[in-house]
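Input record (one chain):
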Amino acid sequence: MTLQVGNCKRTDEACTNADDVNNIVITIENTTQNSLGIAALILHEGIHAEMHRYVSRFQSGVDPNNRARLFQLYAYYKRWSNVQNNLAYRWLDDAHHVYMIENYVKPIASAIRNLDGNKYPLSHYMAYGWEGLRDAGYDINRLTESENTANGNLRKVVDNNFNETCR
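The corresponding structure, as predicted from the sequence alone:
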């Protein structure tokens, strides 16, 4: 895996490119945030990279940028789906982000809290877990606007009191 600073096609935060299965590249575009925010971006993009790595163990040539198909195969090889073309699931959605919302928001928040020395309750770090997922459109029934605002306000407390930098 390679971490680099650069530009992404579809976002202004970070992206994952797995065109070369032997070297998945995570590009960080927004380098102006503190190191906790950058760590959250790396964790988020690392989940995308891991899904591609896992699928490539079973099937080569899968387009890493076709995330709907990639997740369909990921579910199949994890034996969550009986068939590769299970029409009961909405594969055309960006299923990676749905999966992350359902499984990784709290673990990412917890990891960032740990990096910050557990200074605040987990609630102060939830915005880090939601980073890159709020705008995906899948949190409509999962995160209210008031919850999003509250999470953002608690994150500001962490950001304003965090003074370490990545080296």
